[in-house]
């Protein structure tokens, strides 16, 4: 048995290691129970996102909002991707390029009532004055995109990413 100065007789090095291991496991359990708040924050980096279904993106954004996930838009972000602007933790770089167009199903135009519904769904993810511009002009673009650079979005109040 190895003697450790200052310890009462009868405790082995293995017993002491066991107590230390149990303490470490308890600390890890407490971190896990607190929602893992002790981890390093991850940033979702958006670079070349060409959009997708509005309903799916809306669900993803709701999840990201609940978790407080940070989103950094660095490159091209088109169509439904622009809905990331709804998140309080989203920033854009100066070289970001966001593309806006009419809601559509594939290459098909929507019926008037569907067009209105999906336009409002997209617009609710934009801060003012982008929301007003989209409802007045951006949603009318059929084929192609209205392109807005990060520098302009930053001028409109979208947070700039720290460099």
TrEMBL record:
UniProt-recorded name of the protein: Uncharacterized protein
Species per Swiss-Prot/TrEMBL record: Halocynthiibacter styelae
């Amino acid at each position: 048995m190895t003697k450790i100065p200052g310890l009462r007789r009868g405790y082995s090095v293995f017993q002491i290691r066991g107590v230390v291991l149990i303490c470490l496991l308890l600390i890890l359990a407490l971190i896990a129970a607190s929602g893992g708040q002790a981890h390093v924050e991850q940033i979702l980096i958006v670079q070349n996102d060409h959009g997708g279904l509005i309903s799916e993106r809306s669900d993803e954004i709701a999840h990201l909002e609940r978790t407080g996930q940070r989103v950094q838009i660095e490159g091209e972000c088109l169509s439904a991707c622009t809905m990331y602007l709804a998140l309080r933790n989203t920033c854009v770089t100066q070289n970001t390029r966001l593309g806006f167009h009419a809601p559509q199903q594939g290459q098909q135009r929507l019926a008037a009532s569907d067009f209105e519904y999906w336009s409002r769904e997209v617009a609710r993810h934009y801060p003012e004055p982008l929301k007003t511009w989209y409802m007045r002009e951006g949603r009318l673009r059929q084929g192609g995109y209205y392109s807005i650079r990060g520098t302009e979005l930053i001028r409109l109040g979208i947070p700039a990413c720290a460099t």
